[in-house]
């Protein structure tokens, strides 16, 4: 996202009279070379065959690595498939200090119980807390494989033009296969994304979808609790989130751009159910935010669920707003909610107030 450049590739938008909004951004490191690899041209992965049923048509874009390690029960064989290896490498050159630093960070990770995450989904953090590793389902993986070229193209155009965006950056997607002695095999697909909250001391953390249905966390006490839409609405009379005029306009523009991209039906994006993660850093008077969980496409099963719930076939009020809605409907609802959730206060970028002249005033003059 465009704005005042800070160290480590961050971009800060501040207002003097209210909280500022911080969006993770890209540095200019090797930007020209990276743009080439983020474009639409075909990129070849490293040597080695890749046979994955629904994904085989894009195998030339992926890299495969095999190695062994000595474990307590003998040698263990690992196979790692790096999806869109060259394009992700180009993206990381723009937002990571170096490829070696990225590898070093991922070489030491710990399992992490993410608040608000789906049950039975594996989460981990690098020990330096710069990156988050999250397990993805087969459906999510197949969805991303389809719209990944559009994802890289959107990011490259946003960077080149300075257009605001607050998408949390996915920096790599991998399939890890572990084969034990005796042939026992386990497999997991994971993504690596930036940790938006790295180095932050947050007093509140929200996961916002723009919906009020099942969006309340009754256990709001203690630190690191992820609060939801209804928690924010409940707190607005006493603890609203204020932003300055410039920060509010930048936030709205970023949300508008990103939701327009995610709702596109062609080529193959059609994403819904994403969230805006918002962290309140009261010490620095800043908001840290980013759109997360944007890998779930509106597939035929979601179409059917929307129709069944809206029709009332399975009971419940007919024509009630369904929990699952189309990407275009989700986009509209999300934009409207994010506009109302953050209250604007005047700053130096606000238009000047127009005071009535003495001729127009009805107040008697001395």
UniProtKB/TrEMBL annotation:
User: What are the protein's UniProt keywords?
Assistant: ATP-binding, Kinase, Nucleotide-binding, Transferase
Q: What is this protein called?
A: PIPK domain-containing protein
- Domain PIPK, chain residue ranges per copy: 14-342
Assigned GO CC terms: endosome membrane
Top-level taxonomic group: Eukaryota
Which SUPFAM superfamilies did the record assign? SAICAR synthase-like
Q: Does the keyword ATP-binding apply?
A: yes
């Amino acid at each position: 996202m465009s704005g005042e450049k800070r160290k480590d590739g961050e971009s800060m938008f501040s207002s003097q009279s209210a909280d500022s909004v911080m969006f993770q951004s890209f540095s200019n490191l090797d930007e020209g070379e990276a743009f080439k690899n983020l474009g639409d041209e075909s990129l070849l992965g490293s040597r080695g065959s890749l046979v994955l049923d629904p994904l085989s048509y894009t195998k030339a874009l992926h890299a495969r690595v095999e190695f062994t390690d000595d474990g307590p029960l003998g040698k263990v064989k690992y196979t790692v498939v790096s999806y869109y290896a060259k394009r992700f490498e180009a993206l990381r050159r723009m937002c990571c200090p170096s490829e070696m630093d990225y590898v070093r960070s991922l070489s030491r990770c710990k399992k992490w119980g993410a608040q608000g995450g789906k049950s039975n989904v594996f989460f981990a953090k690098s020990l330096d807390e710069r990156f988050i590793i999250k397990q993805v389902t087969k459906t999510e993986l197949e969805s991303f494989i389809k719209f990944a070229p559009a994802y890289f193209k959107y990011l490259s155009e946003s960077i080149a033009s300075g257009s605001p965006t607050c998408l949390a950056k996915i920096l790599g997607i991998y399939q890890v296969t572990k084969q034990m002695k005796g042939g026992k095999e386990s497999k997991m697909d994971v993504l690596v994304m930036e940790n938006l909250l790295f180095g932050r001391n947050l007093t509140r953390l929200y996961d916002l979808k723009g919906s009020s249905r099942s969006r309340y966390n009754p256990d709001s006490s203690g630190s690191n609790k992820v609060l939801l839409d209804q928690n924010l609405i409940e707190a607005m009379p006493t603890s609203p989130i204020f932003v300055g005029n410039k920060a509010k306009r930048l936030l709205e523009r970023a949300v508008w751009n990103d939701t327009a991209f995610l709702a596109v039906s062609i080529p193959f994006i059609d994403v819904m159910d994403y969230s805006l993660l918002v962290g309140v850093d009261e010490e620095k008077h800043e908001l840290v935010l980013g759109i997360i969980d944007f890998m779930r496409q509106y597939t035929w099963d979601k179409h059917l669920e929307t129709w069944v719930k809206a029709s009332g076939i399975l009971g419940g009020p007919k024509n009630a707003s369904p929990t699952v809605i189309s990407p275009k409907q989700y986009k509209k609802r999300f934009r409207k909610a994010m506009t109302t959730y953050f209250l604007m206060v005047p700053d130096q970028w606000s238009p000047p107030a127009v005071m009535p002249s003495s001729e127009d005033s009805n107040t008697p003059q001395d």
